[in-house]
Amino acid sequence: MRNFVITSESVSAGHPDKLCDQVSDAVVDACLASGHRTGLIAECALATGVVFLSVRAGAELRIDPAHVAREVIAAAGYPGDPEGQEPTVILDLSYPAALGSLRADQMVTAFGYACGETQDYMPYPIWAAHRLVREIDTARQEGRLDWISADAQAQVAARFADRHATALEAVAFRFGTTTETSDDQAIEALLAEVVARTFADAPVGPSDSTRFVAIGDEGPAGPLIHSGLTGRKSADDAYGAFVRRAGPSLSGKDPSRIDRIANYAARHAALNVQAAGLAQEIEVQLSYVIGDAAPVSVEVDSFGSATVPDSVISARLRDLIDFRAEAIAERMGLWDLPAARGGRFYRDLAVYGHFGRSDIAPPWEALDLAGKLA
Amino acid sequence: MTDRVAFVHETAGGRVRLSAPGLRGQKDLCARLAQHLQSTPGVTRAEVRSVTGSVILHLHDADGRANPVALVTTALALVRRAGPTAETAPAKAQGPAWYAQDVDTTLRAMASDATAGLSQTEVAARLAQHGANVLPQDQPESHFRLLVKQFESLPVAMLGGSAAVSLLTGGVADAAATLSVVVLNAAFGYATEGQAEVAIHKLMDSSAQQVPVRRAGRDMMIPSAGLVPGDILLARPGVQITADARLIAAEKLKIDESTLTGETFPVSKIPDGVVAAEAPIGERPTMLHAGTLVSEGRGTAVVTATGRDTAAAQIALLSQSAERPRAPVEEELEQLGDRLVAVSLAACSAFFTVGWLRGMPFREILKDALALAVAAVPEGLPVVATTTLSLGLKRMERKNILIRRMDTVETLGKLQVLCLDKTGTLTRNRMQVMAALSGLEAEGAAAAPPVLRHLAGAAALNNDVAPADMAARGASQTEVALLHFAQDTGLDIEQARAVAPRLATVERVPGRTWMATLHGGDRPRTIVKGAPEAVLDMCRTITDETGARPLAKADRARILAANDRLASRQARVLGFAMRDGLVEGDTMDGLTWLGLVAFVDPIRDGAKDFVKRIQHAGLRTVMITGDQSATAAAVAHELDLSDGGPLRIVDSPELTGLDPVLLGGVARSTHVFSRVSAQHKLAIVRALQQDGSVVAMTGDGVNDGPALKAADVGIAMGASGSDLARDVASLVIRDDQLNTLVEAIAQGRGVYRNIRRALEFLVTTNLSEIVVGMVEALHGPGELETPMELLWINLVSDVLPGLGLALADPDHDVMERPPRARGQQIIPPEDFRRMAGDSALIAGASLFSHFSGIIRYGPGPETRAMTFLSLSLGQLFYTLTCQRSDIRKLRPDRLFENRKLDAAVLASSGMAVLPFFVPGLRRLLGIAPLGPASALIALGSAVAPAAVVLARRGVILEFDTVEGHPCETS
């Protein structure tokens, strides 16, 4: 049968690319919370001491994007130096009148996936990577890993047999250090504080043959040594390397953008198909062609794990779910979530992945359709 | 001994003449007395004459001034007591390196006291000893110098030379005429330039600049000229340091030393420690040097050297020359004049060689060569330039535009970026209460009267402005706005304050974003005002219509949301709260929330139109503001700063931390710099300049000094700006109107263009004379015009029309064209080609007349007369077509619109035909009267060049039309 090794990675909230994703989504949050409903795209890039933020909106903003950006960066572990040196924010604002109608001129193929491999219905490698990074961030905040900087990365290689994870081949950490730490000391602490917690209830844990590598960069890393850009971690945002995905960034777009929300709809569909017991694993593919509000095709691939033919599943999805952009946003309440959740929703998605997030319980992680699909 | 000083007489203008016989023959004493009097308050100018023993004082307005006799008597006594300074001056100049001494040593050596400063008598004595704190350049140029200068230019030297040659070759009349031309020219130059220099000097004078010092235990402002060694100088942001001083104390003091060291960013100064004596001027942190500017922080320093003894003056960093700084255009003109002289010398020598080869008599050759030289020299050039500049300055002054630096006029013409300080330039700098939300109220809802009354009461009580001071300029804008708001709710402020007198105040300090006032009276209470988040954090209850109740979490969220909404609408928001009882200290608790008050500084009427006009003129506008980016974006959007495109905002409280190259690149396309503190404006200006832009900057605060100074044009908005900002600015808009700023740019462009047009005209006509002369001389002996003829043409046809062109109003479309390119030559090559063509045209027409004459009369006075008439009138008529450099822009229907030019052409035409009616003049010029036919030919040739230029314009326009609108022809 099919045997392979798949790698996936995740980066911490202080990684420059993730900082940019968070800034972009924090701008979306703030705008939506202030009642902005006329289209919004926020893109961010950053380097040492400088944040470039481009915001295109259908109407004048009622927020301070520069303040939002600084707040995100400070919260991610870069509070600035004690002298109050804050990053410079270079802001491009434009108000194109046509932004409201963007949904009609996008061609998008979005993929959603769900499997029973992990508690969160996510593929094992990306699930493990996110968990590792989350543990690193928690341990750093709690002071258990006081030498690690806000910029960290975890990579996981997992062996699959017959599309099921069977072994953890290797785990690699890369991080900046705030105090001098040898790689051996680092790996020891990471094993104790991070690895043990991560895999405590994991379907597959480390074995004697699992390799652990720690690569510490001298200094706090982060924007000091590498620049960041919104949308550059789109594999980490989705399912890692495990399934197909579309290229566009998820972060920095409001719910009028089909290239963002179609991914949520596809995940929602896949998740409920899996939960309904129709398939062990399932990939849902939605294709939107310009001019049509509904997807021209709703395709599924169960990789031979389904109890009914794939065509039956796709037919049921098509019957049950309205995949038009407005309908998705409406059904999931995507416009109102930031306001309803105290001003932040999308920003939290911008770290540790947009899917399998039982901690924030976004609407696309709800198993509300499983009963109807079965 | 006491000198006898007697009053002689006084004239209306405050000019007083006194006699002091003791001064006779005492040249040195007179000089020192003059210097001393010069720096005495109330005296604008002082002259002391050793020959007559008289003192002439120009005093300020009559009321309250000292008795001039007593004034001079005391001054003289002090000067005598101090003794001669001549021997001590050089020693002091080499004096100890005070930066290498500690503070106490310096103070002791200077016999000064840091807390009290010098006494007034001590100051007077020292002033007598050391002289006024002025640099030589600040003293006006003497009349004699000015007169001598008129004879120093190369063209005049050539004319003088030609007169000498004439004399040697027996042409006494020629020599006399040439010399009288030289003298007349000099007299004219002396009169115009003298006037211009006086006007310019008056505008540029900086010796009256005020500096803060401590004297006799009091802090005061004195004219910079009155600083003496030992004075305690108080460094404040924006203060120009005009003497060398050893630092005594400093608090975050930073000095802009760019004039001395070229160092771009301000350097820190610390009083402690000493510096090695051999440290270069840029590396003396314990020392303040003359010529620098305080950019931030505070400090005190003891003056160690003044005037020409300062380090900067010693190493000639501040110009020692007595001449005012020259405008670049003047330099350019001078170079151009020299080049033309070189051309004419070359022509002469070529002619000389040809004549010699032909075997012409030496005398003839010399005479003809001389004529050629005279033809070529553009006599009118320097006069036209200086007069245009000075009249331009005066005209601008009449329009409330004060130019304080010579190069500013032209720089205005090539401005590319205009940095606008939002506050005070684009806004009125008058805060107004835009909204007051009491309690939980949302915006737009009707105010609940009882709660609003609480809020108004709090606004009136927690307020540092007295109702009587509401109109005062210095009062805090927000405080005044709050009082107006309280008044408008019907509150009697005086009474409210009387009922609840203020007992104590917890001031707002860095790190504490609120202030609290403690009030007595029947009901002692504490009122807090400050940043809404901070005030709300200290609140436990809220008042609404039903009275006080606990503040719920949802209430907080609602208040903060209301705050955010207000803040996003360009408003500054303050929160108010109060509690019963008196609480003092760093934190407050248990307050009751009263409400929010939002202020706006409204955008000026016409600001949007102003931005549009500036952009239309090809300038980029950059707004600089301390506001947060959302507010800045809203203002920028309203003003359409990005001209319809995407708006780029750089939001940074710490611009200096940014890589200058990066900042330069970013600044290129930035419309708004937000959250910028004043001291970072300098970084913005430098970044834009580094990117190759010519930058103007407006400012009104003391902190704007360094940026105003660094900008190519620093603009102070007069009526509301601080004195210090005005001192460093190169341009002051006195009426504070944005339209005047547009006018200033238009005038700047206009003056430069006018000089350029006059120049093009002068060069073109001179070239035509050279061509005519060369052709005639080469064609045959005896054909060349006489030197007197050519001189006459040059004087009647050059100077007046040149001035007429130069004094034109700015073109009506002057603000619809892009700025002049940086580094563009005064005559661009393409213009030079056109000028060569035009001069060939004039020369051709005149030569046609000349050869007609040769055919009719042969070489002789008649032929010369024909050529003279064609050439002189031809040039005059041609002047009319010189009103636009781009011939396509010339409007035939507006050819006579410039009345000054019309008058000049008319007068010059009269002068040109005058010799035909005055026999003596005719003989001098060597021409004969003409018959009607010859006169007709000559006149026709005179009209031809202008006619051809106009005809060619028609043809060019025709082609342009065909090319530009291909569809219209089909």
Q: Determine the number of helices of chain B (DSSP H or I, runs of at least 4 residues).
A: 34
For the residues shown, what is the average pLDDT of chain A?
90
Number of helices of chain A: 11
Average pLDDT number of chain B: 78
Residue runs with pLDDT of under 50 for 5 or more positions of chain A: none
In angstroms, what is the radius of gyration of chain A? 21 Å
Main beta sheet of chain B: 8 strands, antiparallel
Structural class of chain A: alpha+beta
**Termini gap of chain B:** 101 Å
Shape of chain B: globular
User: Main beta sheet of chain A, described?
Assistant: 4 strands, mixed
In the sheet with the most strands of chain A, the strands line up as 1-6-7-8
Overall body shape of chain A:
flat
What can you tell me about this protein's structure?
The complex is a heterodimer of chains A (374) and B (970). Chain A is α+β, with helices and mostly antiparallel strands. Chain A is built from 11 helices and 11 strands. Chain A has a 4-stranded mixed β-sheet. In chain A, a hairpin with an 8-residue loop joins strand 10 and strand 11. In chain A, helix 1 packs across helix 2 and helix 3 (124-141) packs across helix 4. Chain A is flat and about 60 Å long. The mean pLDDT of chain A is 90. Helix content of chain B is 48%, strand content 16%. Chain B contains 34 helices and 28 strands. The longest helix of chain B has 42 residues, at 738-779. The N and C termini of chain B lie far apart (101 Å). Classes of the chains: A alpha+beta (374), B alpha+beta (970). At the A-B interface, helix 2 and strand 4 of A face helix 20, helix 22 and strand 24 of B. Strand 4 (88-94) of chain A pairs antiparallel with strand 24 of chain B.
